[in-house]
Amino acid sequence: MATVTITIEGKQVTATENSTLLSVFKEHDILVNQICGGQGMCASCHFFVVNGLESLTAPTQQEQMTLQFTKIDRPGARLACQTRAIGDGIVIELPTGTFVESEQDLEQKIGKKAAKTLIHPLTGEVLVEAGKLVLRSALEKMKAASDKFTDYLAKK
After folding, report:
1. How far is CA 50 from the centre of its chain?
2. Cα–Cα distance for residue pair 90/122, rounded to 1 Å
3. Can you say how many angstroms the Cα of residue 74 is from the centroid of all Cα atoms in its chain?
4. pLDDT in tens, 39-54
5. Which of 93, 121, 136 is the last residue of a domain?
6. Contact residues for 101 (Cβ-Cβ < 8 A; gap 6+)
7. Where a domain ends, among 40, 71, 93?
8. Most CB contacts within 10 A, which of 77, 93, 101, 102?
9. Residues forming beta bridges with residue 126, ordered by sequence position
10. Would you give the distance in Å from CA 128 to the centre of its chain?
11. Residues of the domain holding 132
């Protein structure tokens, strides 16, 4: 079976051609969330294509809908569960920061500076930039995004 070469955060790995990027991440012990179980319903497995877009499958309809819903504000965003590697020369960056585990986890950080950028666990939206003070407004932003996401899933 044919293999492809992928560079993830500067580390070059090989993968079976037509593998999902999520399976490549798992195979090479790259930690990535997959809250929806790889169904393309959340953005917790998103990554950014730096180079080699033509070596990836086109975005699925589900992926397009999910990425339109999220507030990931950077070009080249893709979902690892929906994207397959079909050629060489793919260069990937992962989101910098940490996914917030829960609203309670974020609430405990209020009044403290964020050591890392805090990211919504479902939508991939940045809640608080690294070094910034975690305010109650970040918790409200998280709750609003969670409610919107729940409504979105209910309509599916």
Report:
1. 15
2. 25
3. 11
4. 998 888 999 999 999 9
5. 93
6. 121
7. 93
8. 77
9. 119
10. 16
11. 98-154
Q: What is the total residue count of the chain?
A: 156
Q: Distance (Å, rounded) from C-alpha 58 to C-alpha 39?
A: 16
Strand order in the sheet with 3-8: 11-16, 3-8, 90-93, 46-51, 77-79
State whether 28 and 60 are in the same domain.
yes
Task: Write out the two tokens for 72.
Answer: 């990931």
Handedness of CA 13, 18, 24, 27 (dihedral sign): negative
Q: Could you tell me if 20 and 71 lie in one domain?
A: yes
* Residues 114 and 71 placed together within one structural domain of the fold: no
Q: Same domain, yes or no, for 12 and 78?
A: yes
- List, for residues 54-107, the tens digit of each pLDDT value: 999 999 999 998 888 887 778 899 999 999 999 999 999 998 888 887 888 889
CA dist., res. 2 & res. 60, Å (int): 23
State the burial class of residue 24 (Cβ atoms within 10 Å of its Cβ: 0-12, 13-18, 19+). Answer: buried
Contacts of 150 (CB under 8 A, 6+ apart): none
Q: Which two tokens stand for residue 27?
A: 């195979």
Q: Within this chain, do residues 77 and 108 fall inside the same structural domain, yes or no?
A: no
- Reduced to 3 states, what is the DSSP secondary structure of residue 34? coil
Closest CA to 142 of 89, 103, 107: 103
